[in-house]
Design goal:
This protein has a seven-stranded mixed sheet. Strands 1-2 form a two-stranded antiparallel ribbon. Strands 3-4 form a two-stranded antiparallel sheet. By secondary structure, it is of the alpha/beta class. Among the domains are: 67-152, Arc Repressor Mutant, subunit A (Orthogonal Bundle), CATH 1.10.10; 159-272, 3-Layer(aba) Sandwich (Rossmann fold). It has helices at 26-31, 35-40, 42-47, 51-64, 83-101, 109-116, 120-128, 142-152, 168-175, 178-181, 212-218, 230-242, 269-284, and strands spanning 67-72, 78-82, 106-107, 140-141, 159-164, 184-191, 200-201, 204-208, 223-226, 247-250, 263-266. A hairpin with a 2-residue loop joins strand 7 and strand 8.
Length: 289
């Protein structure tokens, strides 16, 4: 989310001073091989293990993208968890929960992949980041995977969340019980409408926006959902961040800006429908085979 080569080029036997051309001869010619060619030659291929293993992971590696969050491996050392893997973990978790409901203690990578809409190599690659390699011929321990994914997603903790904006969408969010089941506790809501202030929505007290900073600090809220009109979304977000919020889920029809240390995700239902509209138009106008 991208190193500047040194001033001097490195030879096999030493460093060429800046501004001096390398001497001819076998040593200089060897050093002039392109790094790309050196990496893709026979020695590099041999060090990558059997071709079957490399082929299994190639597609998964290409799809992962840059790291978003660090996972903790044995001994407490940090490993990067790619952003694409983070997006897939909740899907895996849903499938695993259904598997537990069916009283299945294990699941294969092929079985999980089919239900999650990915390929088996991708599943194995994603779980390798957590040290969960499964057992050949048996599959993955479902309870263990649920535990590890919960840890990675922070679902083994309770997160205090505030809701900014109690319009139609905000009320729907406040009434959704799925947040609580996953450890996201909505502790307060804010609105500018005097008719809503002081009432409860989904069991949550609605506070005036003028008390936002105090309430966020008093309730130790670190996450926020913004469902305000577009015109006020940035101002409200700035105040939430200043009060100590470090993660924002934006439902407002606006592009928000936050400091680098704050995590920001956007959910725009209208945009998603527009994307579906494109595919609907594409299919409707496709020439028959």
């Amino acid at each position: 989310m991208p190193a500047v080569p040194p001033a001097g080029s490195k030879l096999l036997g030493g460093t060429t001073p800046k501004g001096q051309a390398p001497t001819d001869g076998p040593r200089a010619r060897a050093s002039n091989r392109s790094p790309e060619r050196a990496r893709t030659g026979p020695r590099a291929t041999a060090s990558n293990g059997p071709r079957t293993r490399a082929a299994d992971g190639a597609q998964a590696r290409a799809a992962d993208g840059p790291p978003e969050r660090a996972s903790t491996g044995p001994g407490g050392w940090a490993r990067p968890l790619p952003e694409a893997t983070v997006r897939r973990l909740p899907v895996y978790l849903q499938v695993l929960a259904e598997t537990l409901d069916d009283r299945q203690p294990t699941i294969s990578s092929e079985g999980l992949a089919a239900r999650a809409g990915v390929n088996a190599a991708q599943v194995r690659k994603d779980f390798s980041y957590m040290g969960s390699y499964g057992t050949r011929g048996v599959g993955y321990d479902v309870e263990l995977l649920v535990h590890r994914i919960n840890q990675q997603l922070g679902l083994d903790e309770v997160h205090n969340v505030v809701l900014a904006g109690v319009g139609h969408l905000g009320q729907a969010l406040a009434n959704y019980r799925g947040f609580e089941e996953r450890g996201f506790h909505i502790v307060a809501a804010f609105d500018t409408d005097p008719g809503k202030v002081g009432h409860r929505v989904g069991g949550v007290v609605v506070y005036p926006v003028t008390q936002l900073e105090r309430v966020v600090r008093d309730l130790a809220a670190t996450m926020a959902m913004v469902a305000t009109p577009a015109a006020t979304a940035q101002e409200v977000t700035d105040r939430l961040v200043a009060a100590g919020v470090t993660s924002v889920l934006n439902f407002a029809p606006a592009v928000l800006s936050v400091p680098p240390q704050v995590s920001l995700r956007k959910v725009d239902l209208a945009v998603e429908l527009q994307i579906l509209g494109y595919y609907q138009h594409l299919h409707a106008n496709a020439a028959p085979l």
